[in-house]
Amino acid sequence: MMPSRLLIRADATIPAGTGHVMRCLALAQEWGRTDGEALFAQAASTPALEQRVDKENLRRLKVTAAPGSLDDAKQTIEFARACAAEWVVADGYHFNAEYQHRIKDAGLKLLFVDDHGHASQYWADYILNQNISANPKWYSNREPYTQLLLGTQYTLLRKEFGKWWDWKREIVPIARKILVTLGGSDPHNITQKVVAALSSQQNREIECIVLVGGSNQHISELQSQCRNSGPSIRLILDADNMPELMAWADVAISASGTTSWELAFMGLPNLLIIFADNQKLTAEALQKKGVSVFLGFHTAVTRDRVGKALAELNLDHDKRLAMSEQGRRLVDGRGAKRVAANLRAPALVLRRARPDDSRLLWEWANDPEARRISFSQDPISWETHLQRFSKDLASPNSFIYIAENGDGTPIGQIRYDIKDQEASVSVSLAKAARGRGNGVPLIIRGTRRCFADSRVKAIHAYIKPENEISLQAFGVAGYSEGAAVQINGQPAKQFVFPRP
């Protein structure tokens, strides 16, 4: 079976940085995790990033046209057709309304990754803005079919952060370990100012790690500066263990952008510096939310300003504790899974159950795995099933949907039972459809359909604590964990999805 393919159109340059490619890399990793294949089409990149993409065994295609031009769109369309890509992902400020229009006119599905609503019109199937400041009003000029994926629940984190989901940071009384990460290129060499500020700190027990990307043009002078600052400041080039370094640190000094979300997820208190006007809203929102301390635009940042802010934060245990906890609440690390699940969801078609589905649903309901995770494990007799199924089909408060794949084969069901404008959901997959990434798309599509077909205010899922697959699936689908309850005298975890 041919893998579903994702063609990612994203560039990296020294002035623009590496963030567009790095966040798309997270989506590429997640796409490949469930039998998919991702490819990068690039007009510009850096040697360090090319090595990073190659390390993931991802194919790279060269765009020879001017970035964002109509010729660029034409080449991207040709690449997508040649590799039979299911989706095109465009991430970059040079991709405008006309670029999107050309991709869609070619009959391709498009995910458009945005940060500040820079296009005059949106033609994409999905718009992804992972920022805390994402505003639906920015995308009012969009097509009726365009769906929005907005906010930090869709933050794209690379797979190396996955094993840190359940990690708990210890907040020390006085911060002594400082991590500096100012982007893959740092063309203005703000790292030099920060290292100077670190060297002037009164606390001599401070340890510092300075991260520098391979695209940085000031590596030699930074290496010399760190050596002359003493053994407490180490420089690391092209670090490949970012989560471990963030776990090591007590405080970070960082550029605003992709790294902001990594720091929030790792619960690492941080000082933020912005390098572009479009980063200001996000940095201000992170400060207002209590996740970061915003130092301002890079041109206004001085050695003394950095040193004073760092010294104050290092001594303020309570503030660092609050920042860490709020960051973990803001970014849960499952954003790439949610985005990938949304892209896969259109491959499933939901239809209302019909009388001739009765036997199929009975067989699914009596599958040993379905009975094992049910709150009532006894087999269901044909007579009992037929009586209830007939009643449910006639009831305005019961919705049963059958999920079919691209060739019309039924692969699962999702049902909703409504009472007092609240719905409870149950879902099951055919045995052959399990372990193929169908669960989350089915929940996503079912949730949308339930809200469209009813006036329910919220949907509730009740799951056995040991049913790890369902717990994770509903979490990835965007459901939030609520209060624990009892179902048939058994403990259950509750997940809730309010009407958007």
What is the fold-level CATH name, i.e. the topology of the largest domain? Rossmann fold
- Uncertain stretches: none
Portion of residues in helices? 25-40%
Largest sheet: 8 strands, mixed
Instruction: Give the overall form.
Output: globular
The CATH architecture name of the largest domain reads 3-Layer(aba) Sandwich
Which class of secondary structure composition applies to the elements? Answer: alpha/beta
CATH class category of the largest domain:
Alpha Beta
Describe how the helices and strands are arranged.
Elements: E1 4-10, H1 19-33, E2 36-42, H2 47-55, E3 59-62, H3 70-82, E4 85-91, H4 97-105, E5 109-113, E6 126-129, E7 147-150, E8 177-181, H5 190-199, E9 207-212, H6 219-228, E10 233-237, H7 242-248, E11 251-255, H8 258-265, E12 270-274, H9 280-288, E13 292-297, H10 303-315, H11 317-330, H12 335-344, E14 349-352, H13 358-365, H14 368-372, H15 382-394, E15 398-404, E16 410-419, E17 422-429, H16 439-453, E18 458-463, H17 468-476, E19 480-481, E20 485-487, E21 490-498
Parallel strand pairs: 1-2, 1-4, 2-3, 4-5, 5-6, 6-7, 8-9, 8-11, 9-10, 11-12, 12-13, 17-18
Antiparallel strand pairs: 14-15, 15-16, 16-17, 18-21, 19-21, 20-21
Helix pairs in contact: 1-12, 3-4, 5-10, 8-11, 12-16
What does it look like?
There is one protein chain. The protein has 17 helices and 21 strands. With 500 residues, it is α/β, with parallel strands linked by helices. The chain has three domains: 4-160, Rossmann fold, CATH 3.40.50; 166-330, Glycogen Phosphorylase B (Rossmann fold), CATH 3.40.50.2000; 348-498, Aminopeptidase. The radius of gyration is 25 Å and the shape is globular. It starts with a strand and ends with a strand.
